[in-house]
Amino acid sequence: MKILMILVAGVFVNNFILSKFLGICSFLGVSKKLETSVGMGIAVTFVMTMASAITYVVQYAILNPCHLEYLQTIAFILVIAALVQFVEMVIKKTSPALHQAMGVYLPLITTNCAVLGVTILNIQNSYNFLESVVNGAAGAIGYTLAIVLFAGIRERMELSDIPESLQGFPIALISSSLMAIAFLGFSGMI
Amino acid sequence: MASAILIPVAVLGIMGLLFGALLAFASKVFEVKKDERVPVVREALPGANCGGCGFAGCDALAEAIVKGEAPVNACPVGGAAVGAKIAEIMGTGNVAETPKIACVLCGGDCDAAPHRADFYGLKDCNEAMIASGGTKTCRFGCIGLGSCVAACDFDALTMGDKGLPVVDPDHCTSCGMCVKTCPKGIMNLIPKDQMIHVDCRSREKGKIVRSACSNGCIACKACTKVCPTGAITVNNNLASIDYDKCTQCGACVEKCPTGAIVKEDRVVKVNG
Questions:
Q1: Measured between alpha carbons, how far is residue B115 from residues B112, B130, B204, B208 in Å?
Q2: Which among A54, A128, B46, B179 is least buried, having the fewest CB atoms inside 10 angstroms?
Q3: Which residues touch B48 (CB under 8 Å, ≥6 apart)?
């Protein structure tokens, strides 16, 4: 039951982008096209889930026994950076077009605060291994959901008549804030 | 005490080494074969990243050349010399192209073309263009605020004392940045050995041109009649020279009543 709660809370209630406001950079950067946003969502899902699992091991098998809890941030970033490098290699090999489309935002998953955020929250909420992985996956699914929905909205916006001063990022920020308000409706669920 | 420093260093070091080793292994498994000619072509390019070729910099151009999406002599800065080098790398014949140079196709200096307004905005031609289409009476003439001079990465353009930009043929690399910047389309790339050109872009009728500028082309067609090779045509009230046909005899320069067709005396160094 707790697993299900974590899943629902991670995807909807504590959505990383729309209620915690983490990972906004790539959310705005890669959401211009539906296809690339799906690719970005999958990449982030992989990194976040794997990072949750590995950082759990790093925290409880390395940092805690050595009393090095203060190294949490740098150790976690090390893990995330290595994972992102790995994902980039895989994508470059399997889908050069996706690699081109994601461009600089792919290495930027390294500094995507949503990934570091989820790993640190796992430790702070003292989740066990399974709960950490589920929380990581749920956060990533929430990220994917938000970015894919937003990409759909932005594709529609391309065709609409927007006042000149609001074109581009201004209207994107306004519509993402409206999405955040909509997601606020989930906050009563749990 | 020392262990308080050494243990964290050791832990992070080992973790780093471990991840590094894993990544090194993964990079072998997921290796993407890259054409080894790309870095060689990139090395042959000037590396100014000016964007004159239309690609996003020298790296992008090198990749496009290797893929065959761009000609070997696509770099306007490097000119024929770089083109020949890249042709050698690519194993294709050199596509000979005459070197080009930027040219100011407007004769409306401060003596010839009067102003109709003062402009107090930013010292930028595009800014003035938005405000009122420039300050000269001639709608097609050089605004004279020197945006082309600012756009030139190679110090080849200076603002002359008569209010028109002056091209330094020794420094111009024909990258075309001034051509892209000029809101009036006055900066043009012409063959480097082409001395005769029409220094006017006005498509107005002769009478209006006369009232706006004493050096403008009034479309009298005298040049078309005098040209022995038929290189000059008048379209939309403006004479234009076909540089392929022009023998640079200079008959049109003498005939032109307003001095819109000029013969330059720039020293050409055909060094490739």
A1: 10, 17, 17, 14
A2: A128
A3: B58, B77, B153, B175
Nearest to A82 among B19, B31, B32 (CB): B19
Amino acid at A113: C
ipTM: 0.74
User: Is the model's pLDDT at B156 over the cut of 80?
Assistant: yes
Which residue of chain A comes nearest to B7, CA vs CA? A66
- DSSP letter, residue B266: P
B190 strand-pairing partners: B101
3-class DSSP state of B102: strand
**Alpha carbon distance B192, B223 (integer Å):** 22
- The two tokens of residue B255 are 């005939």
DSSP A35-100: HHHHHHHHHHHHHHHHHHHHHHHIIIIIITTTT-GGGHHHHHHHHHHHHHHHHHHHHHHH-HHHHH
Count A/B contacts: CB-CB distance under 8 Å.
Answer: 43
Residues in chain B: 272
* d(C-alpha B84, C-alpha B96), whole Å: 8
**Residue B162: DSSP 8-state:** T
Reduced to 3 states (helix: H, G, I; strand: E, B; else coil), residue B104 is: strand
Contact predicate A122/A56, CB 8 Å: yes
Q: Identify residue B63 by its one-letter amino acid code.
A: E
A3 touches chain B (CB under 8 A): no
Q: Look up residue B188 and give its DSSP letter.
A: E
User: Which tens digits make up the pLDDT trace of B218-232?
Assistant: 988 889 889 888 889
Q: Phi first, then psi: give them for residue A61, nearest 5 degrees.
A: -100, -25
Task: For chain B, give percent helix, strand, coil, nearest 5.
Answer: 35, 10, 55
In angstroms, the Cα distances linking B193 to B155, B227, B267 are 21, 19, 9
Q: Quick check: B11 and A62 CB within 8 A?
A: yes
The Cβ of residue B249 has, within 10 Å, a number of other Cβ atoms equal to: 15
Tokens 């050698």 correspond to: B88
Contacts of A79 in chain B (CB under 8 A): 15, 19
Specify the 3-state DSSP secondary structure of B176: coil
- By C-alpha distance, which of B205, B200, B198 is closest to B246? B198
Instruction: List, for residues A44-88, the tens digit of each pLDDT value.
Output: 888 899 899 999 999 999 888 888 888 899 999 999 999 888 888
Lookup: tokens for B215: 């050096």
